[in-house]
Amino acid sequence: MKKFQILVDSSSDLKNDYVNEDDIAFKVIPLIINVSDTEYVDSDDVDCEKMLKHMHESKKSSSACPAPQSFLQEFDNATYTFIITITSKLSGCYNSACVAKQSYTKPENIFVIDSKAVSGTEILLVDKLVKLIKSGLSFEEIQEKIISYRDGRSLYFILQKFDNLVNNGRMSKIAGLIASTLVIRPICIAHEGEIKIAKKIIGIKNCLSKLVQMICEKSKDYSQETLIITHCFAEKEATQIKEDIESKCNFKEIRILPMGALCSYYALEKGLIICH
Questions:
Q1: Residue 41: which of 51, 27, 49 has the closest Cα?
Q2: 33, 262 Cβ separation under 8 angstroms
Q3: Side-chain-side CA neighbours of residue 152 (13 Å)
């Protein structure tokens, strides 16, 4: 048995081999996309292109969070467990993890973290947890520091389509109507775990440019920070954002990753999520 382990849900867009440390167990707990009578488990080998094609052809689709048992069955693999979930404002995943914690024989050894975001923010939290664990801090000390770190993160996203966010109640119909107009391209943010429209820009090129400006104006020094861009079949746009930010900001590292099934389902084609 290892002393520490990290569990993260699949809205993180991570795969199970992401953490490769001898002293830290790691696992991605999958969410599920249901399209008609087909279940797509958001695992390492899920075919997002096939899922989206099927979804567009179907009139019925939804997402489902993991059951408490999915978390509970992992707890005996380590003395202490950290769980990172998608924002509790958009999914029942956080509540499911909390139920699992309370069902365990030693709930005091489980710490559930509401990321208040999704995708790259969860990745940054995993990275930070690994560093904190390897620094030798106690379980209680790590809890305090990881929450402080989470509260300093920022998430932006630019989507071309908002259908599933609106249809599944993750975004208001009014905001969705504004977001889905042909001319206006909104820059959305995660604010206290909820989706908010921060800027309304005309044209996608102007939207991408304004996003870079917003990020670079937020701080003069990013030399110790990582920025993560996840995309749904929008590698060209993701690369453009990366290059533009690199020319204006001094991030320590900028990573581009493809979205998994859950994020692809809500972001849809050409969707981009940017976190730092």
A1: 51
A2: yes
A3: 12
Model pLDDT for residues 113-127, shown as the tens digit of each residue: 999 999 999 999 999
Beta-strand relationship, 155-158 and 184-191: antiparallel
Distance CA 87, CA 235 (A): 25
Residue 7, amino acid: L
Predicted TM-score (pTM) of the model is: 0.93
Residues across the chain: 276
Residue with tokens 């809205």: 11
Determine how many CB atoms are found less than 10 A away from the CB of residue 52. 21
pLDDT in tens, 141-178: 999 999 999 999 999 998 877 665 666 656 555 455 55
Dihedral Cα 216, 221, 225, 230, nearest 10 deg = 10
Task: Give the rounded distance of the alpha carbon of 202 from its chain centre.
Answer: 27
3-state helix, strand, coil in the chain (%, to 5): 40, 30, 30
Q: What is the residue type of 267?
A: A
CA distance 126 to 143: 13
Q: Is the sign of the CA dihedral 112, 115, 116, 119 positive or negative? A: negative
66-107 pLDDT tens trace? 999 999 999 999 999 999 999 999 899 999 999 999 999 999
* Span 19-66, pLDDT tens digits: 999 999 999 999 999 999 999 999 999 999 999 999 999 989 999 999
Contacts of 213 (CB under 8 A, 6+ apart): none
